[in-house]
Amino acid sequence: MKNQKLELTWIGKDKRPKLEARILLEDAAKSYHAPTRSEQAIFDNRLIFGDNLLALKALEQEFAGRVKCVFIDPPYNTGSAFAHYDDGLEHSIWLALMRDCLELIKRLLADDGSLWITIDDNEVHYLKVLCDEVFGRGNFVANVVWQKRTSPDNRLRLGNAHDHILVYGKQPLIHQKFNQLEIGEARKKDFKNPDNDPRGAWASTDFTGMTGHATASQFYKITAPNGKKHPPPEGRCWAISELTFEKLLQENRVWFGKDGNSRSRLKRFLSEMEGQNAWFWWGNDEVAHNQEAKKEINALFGAKNPFDTPKPERLMKRILELATNPGDLVLDSFAGSGTTGAVAHKMGRCWIMVELGEHCYTHIIPRLHKVIDGTDQGGISKVVNW
Questions:
Q1: What is the residue-wise DSSP string for 71-82?
Q2: 10 Å Cβ neighbour count for 326?
Q3: Are 344 and 350 in contact (CB under 8 A)?
Q4: More reliable by pLDDT, 45 or 20
Q5: pLDDT band for position 46 (50/70/90)?
Q6: Domain named DNA methylase N-4/N-6: which ranges (predicted)?
């Protein structure tokens, strides 16, 4: 097995479609903009009605290396009957279609761009290996777990409550380029000011580390105000040198507890924080759930014209907050009900969406009209002052 390259195999893997370059034609009758336009307005957003692979190939000449974030919500291949998608493709066909799609997406991504794919347990492990093959294992960033339900499924003794969001970069260490999130109200409640520090509210943080690469300078004892000496906890070391600790102590950035006897912790001031880091667990209290997504769609189109598997706007907002900045280009080649374009538009990002289903006309176009006109006040509209 040494130096042997492992790949995912399936029936017909060597068969590839011949994708000839196509020309994108504007349907001027369907192009749309707000009645009043500002000088800062962007008019290069595109909604493409057509086949996924052909559309991605057509975009390659103009947009190769320019897309900052790709989000796709492909058919989950569950075998279920969906009104808007054939979600029961035979496994090998599904893998071949995803492979061809991923290769085109990789060419469209900017060097600092990232790909986000929502998927469930049915295909996530195969998709992970496939993405490793196309993007390289070193470019895997995260498997974000999104809590899509609010309660267990009573029909099952062990019910599914989450979807996966696989995240890849075009280059390694893409996580270093992600943005921090705005500090939420729940997080702000963790900051207090028990010692009336003039710098305002703060939270104490641990500053111990693993001992694997520690030096002797990280095993000093710290003397608390009452004279008690504290070594690092057993099996741990101090994460900073003694010299650095003494400097922080002089700046009143060390906390020994109300009685001055506890093991020291560092004070982190809310006023000095630019944001907070995200992690791989996204609860539905932060980024919404399936029920909220369906309510958003029903508010736009009515319950008689639903979309089976929409994603909530708060989920897409989280992804774009981390992966993009205003003016960046976002691509979604499985546009569905148009959530990606709607949220990107409200957040000041440029967007391209591709959709072949009839809901391109029944859902996406009417939805984007409402966003552009400002009559869509659901989803994230009020949060971002749209």
A1: EE------S-B-
A2: 10
A3: yes
A4: 45
A5: very high
A6: 67-362
- C-alpha dihedral, 168 to 170 to 172 to 178, nearest 10°: -70
- Please report the sign of the dihedral spanned by the C-alpha atoms of residue 176, residue 179, residue 180, residue 181: negative
pLDDT at 41 over 80: no
- Give the model confidence (pLDDT) of 197-209 as tens digits: 999 999 999 999 9
According to DSSP, the residues that pair with 81 across neighbouring strands are 86
By residue count, the chain amounts to: 386
Which residues on neighbouring strands pair with residue 192, listed in sequence order?
A: 202
- Taking the C-alpha atoms of residue 99 and residue 73, their distance in angstroms, rounded to an integer, is 15
CATH class held by domain 51-181+277-329+346-373: alpha beta
Cα–Cα distance measured from residue 253 to residue 247, given in angstroms and rounded to the nearest whole number: 9
Q: What pTM value is reported for the model? A: 0.87
pLDDT at 327 over 90: yes
Helices (H), 169-289: 185-188, 242-250, 284-287
Contact 364, 57 (CB under 8 A): no
Whole-number Å distance between alpha carbons of 160 and 133? 28
The pLDDT tens digits of the residues spanning 236-286 come to 999 999 999 999 999 999 999 998 989 999 999 999 998 988 999 999 999
Kindly list the domain boundaries of the chain, sorted by start residue: 51-181+277-329+346-373, 185-272
At 1 the pLDDT is 44
Tokens for 239, please give them: 């994460």
Residues 56/106, Cβ–Cβ less than 8 Å: no
- List, in order, residues 6 or more apart from 180 with CB less than 8 Å away: 274, 275, 276, 277, 278
